[in-house]
Automatic annotation (TrEMBL):
Keywords: Cytoplasm, Magnesium, Metal-binding, Nucleotidyltransferase, RNA-binding, Transferase. GO terms for molecular function: polyribonucleotide nucleotidyltransferase activity. InterPro entries: ExoRNase_PH_dom1, ExoRNase_PH_dom2, ExoRNase_PH_dom2_sf, KH_dom, KH_dom_type_1, KH_dom_type_1_sf, NA-bd_OB-fold, PNPase. HAMAP family: PNPase (MF_01595). Residues 634-703 form the S1 motif domain. The keyword RNA-binding applies. This is Polyribonucleotide nucleotidyltransferase. It is found in: Cytoplasm. Its main location: cytoplasm.
Length: 725
């Protein structure tokens, strides 16, 4: 018989109860819990190896979040009808968990850890990604795997001015900002989200609201751990250390490292000089050995580790003490900017954005509704009209690597740029599907922010009517005791050695996107507020340069870009436009060279016409307007003769609408026959003079548009009027 599960329930607000349970499922894992709210249930398991692999020098953490389609009563749509590789949504959720959990482990813990989180029951109103990190942290809390603290994660949305914790799907659609925040009881750990140009003060408020909710969830995890009786955490083998060797490395290399760090060198030159110092260090250590004796591998490995640590601390101290950075900039200086648009002849929009040693070549492609991206999850699937792809080839950092598809990092960076630019994308009558592709050509810090800037430029170059430019800047933080330095527009090396990686995107009016990872305990809210204000100054500096490059979106798409118009028709006309078996719409597409898509939206027919040639789009638009037009008596129309009969001619005066021009309405002259007068295919204007009251057929006249000739009697018919007339 299964043991009785251990449960802890708490309220996240509005009477919504969340239950954490352990002891019933997946009992052979080191830690396993389920988190449930409504019908939504998430299973999280965690397993860690007892020992690190020999020679391991990094922490191998794997986090996978997956949604089982059975959780929503659905069968996957793939060929094999089973869950396959993680989709982008699952990858992004996995990254949210990973980034929050990774700082919890001790710096000297190198045992492999695997965290698996699965959605096993779905609720259409509950967003599971907001509870996935809670489940993962709870699984670690009830295990003996060594972690320093317990964390949790919540989503905060603002709906009609009210801040809501873990909103429903419907509430989220009505919100003007949404952020996912992870934190320990005392410190923020991770922030990611988007907003419709919110202020820095609004973001600080979000963080405060989120932290209060997170503390409730952390307390519930701690109580669950106590109920289970977790006494302590397992011991693990610590890496080998050698204090004497560390002192030798410091004495030999510290000044040399400082001189290179202070030299304001380009990235590769600086790397080469640091590598040369390392080689000198190894030769120095060899010189202390008896002749003919080689340096042990363990000593080489430790010396390399201590040398890397030395670089880390020397550069940090230089920035903190002297307010000078690796490339010679001040703390708030943005690297040199260079940007241009219309750099490629064939794409519908293109830009090249360069900031220092980071460069993005970005293109925009305009497509039809048939090009929309299917975004699929267990609970809901929908089509997206705007999406962005980010590519980071190895040559961008001067490396040789295997090309094996997009990495999780590429998916995450692309998502941040997409959600930032999405805030400015037009809606309503803008019928295009828009794909943005950012190819990073070189990288030394914050290529995702370069993608945001390049994407904004390329969208305006393509004629996409975005109202404002969006720029982004990556911020860094270095702390030591009470001293700290906030860095604007960080380099790749500064990202590695800093205590915070903080990316902020936005317009001149406010914030559009945020991604933040904090690697240090005790980040004060006032430091966060200062970082936000400094980021705003950097963002505005970049925006000024972008507006100089292209101040507004082009009035029209480029000549070689496809044309698209959208019009709305009454719902009852949808069938007439499509025709029996699609005959009418297929004929229109064939004759005009366009693609036509019709959907029923809000009890109206939404018609999108897409074509390369403007003439074809205009012709299709006129054709559809003719089909849905209601003929009015007294109006004049252009007509085409479709057939000639003894009593008149049948003409098409609007697309799909025909009427009879009776032989008596062809001309003021009496005609016995139309032979030689009217032929099939002739065109002339006609006037709608009425409809048959019985059949409803249209009556048309040509002679009504011809001046009536004056009557002149012949001379032999003239007579002398009687006297008196």
């Amino acid at each position: 018989m299964l043991q009785q599960p251990i449960r802890k329930t708490f309220d996240i607000g509005g009477g919504r109860m969340v239950t954490i349970e352990t002891g019933r499922l997946a009992r052979q894992a080191d830690g396993a819990v389920t988190v449930s709210m409504g019908n939504c249930m998430i299973l999280a398991t965690v397993v860690a190896n007892k020992e690190a692999k020999e020679g391991q020098s990094f922490f191998p953490l794997t986090v996978d979040y997956q949604e089982k389609f059975a959780s929503a009563g659905r069968i996957p749509g793939s060929f094999f009808k089973r869950e396959a590789r993680l989709n982008d949504y699952e990858i992004l959720t996995s990254r949210l968990i990973d980034r929050a959990l990774r700082p919890l482990f001790p710096d000297d813990y190198f045992c492999e850890v695997q965290v698996l989180v699965s959605l096993i029951s779905s609720d259409v109103d509950v967003l599971p990604d907001a509870m996935a990190c809670l489940a993962a942290s709870a699984a670690l809390a009830v295990s003996d795997i060594p972690i320093k603290e317990v964390i949790s994660e919540v989503r905060v949305a603002r709906v009609n001015g009210e801040y809501i914790i873990n909103p429903s799907r419907n509430e989220l659609e009505e919100s003007d900002l949404e952020f996912i925040v992870a934190a320990t009881e005392k410190n923020l750990m991770m922030v990611e989200g988007e907003a419709n140009e919110c202020s820095e003060e609004d973001l600080v408020k979000v963080l405060e609201v989120a932290h209060e909710a997170i503390r409730i969830q952390i307390k519930a995890q701690q109580e669950l751990r106590d109920l289970k009786g977790v006494a302590g955490k397992r011991d693990y083998t610590k890496p080998v250390t050698d204090e004497a060797l560390e002192q030798k490395v410091t004495a030999f290399a510290k000044q040399k490292v400082y001189e290179v760090a202070k030299g304001a060198l380009p990235k590769h030159e600086r790397s080469d000089k640091f590598a040369a110092i390392k080689e000198e260090l190894i030769e120095f250590l060899k010189s202390e050995l008896p002749e003919g004796e080689s340096l042990p591998d363990q000593t080489k490995k430790l010396a390399s580790t201590y040398y890397s640590d030395l670089q880390y601390y020397v550069v940090r101290d230089m920035i903190l003490d002297e307010k000078v950075r690796l490339d010679g900039r001040g703390l708030e200086d943005v690297r040199a900017l260079d940007m241009e648009v219309d750099v490629l002849p064939s794409p519908h929009g293109a830009s090249l954005f360069t900031r220092g040693e980071t460069q993005s070549l970005t293109t925009v492609t305009l497509g039809t509704a048939l090009d929309e991206l299917l975004v699929e999850s267990a609970a809901k699937s929908y089509d997206s009209k705007f999406f962005l792809h980010y590519n980071f080839p190895p040559f961008s950092t001067g490396e040789v690597k295997m090309m094996r598809g997009q990495s999780r990092r590429e998916v995450g960076h692309g998502a941040l740029a997409m959600r930032s630019l999405k805030q400015m994308m037009p809606t309503g009558d803008f019928a295009y599907t828009v794909r943005v592709v950012s190819d990073i050509l070189e990288s030394n810090g914050s290529s995702s922010m370069a993608t945001v800037c390049a994407g904004s430029l390329a969208l305006m170059d393509a004629g996409v009517p975005i109202p404002h430019h969006v720029s982004g800047v990556a911020m860094g933080l270095i702390t030591k005791g009470d001293k700290y330095a906030i860095l604007t527009d960080i380099l790749g090396d500064e990202d590695h050695l800093g205590d915070m990686d903080f990316k902020v995107t936005g317009t001149r009016n406010g914030i559009c996107g945020v991604q933040m990872d904090i690697k240090v305990d005790g980040l004060k809210m006032e430091v966060m507020a200062q970082a936000l204000q400094q980021a705003k100054r950097g963002r505005l500096h970049i925006l000024d340069a972008m507006y100089e490059c292209i101040p507004a979106a082009r009035a029209e798409v480029k000549p070689h870009s496809p044309r698209m118009v959208k019009l709305y028709i009454e719902r009852e006309f949808i069938g007439a436009v499509i025709g029996p078996g699609g005959k009418v719409i297929q004929e229109m597409q064939r004759e005009t060279g366009t693609t036509i898509n019709i959907e029923e939206v809000n009890n109206m027919g939404e018609v999108s016409i897409f074509g390369v040639a403007k003439e074809g789009v205009d012709k299709a638009q006129a054709w559809i307007k003719g089909i849905v037009a209601v003929p009015e008596v007294g109006e004049v129309y252009d007509s085409v003769v479709k057939s000639v009969v003894p009593f008149g001619a049948f003409v098409e005066f609007l697309p799909g609408k025909q009427g009879l021009v009776h032989i008596s309405e062809i001309s003021w002259k009496r005609l016995e026959t139309l032979e030689g007068v009217v032929r099939e295919g002739d065109t002339f204007k006609v006037k709608l003079i009425g409809t048959d009251p019985k059949s409803g057929k249209f009556k048309l006249s040509r002679k009504a548009l011809i001046p009536k000739p004056e009557f002149k009697p012949r001379e032999d018919q003239q007579r002398t009027p009687p006297q008196g007339e």
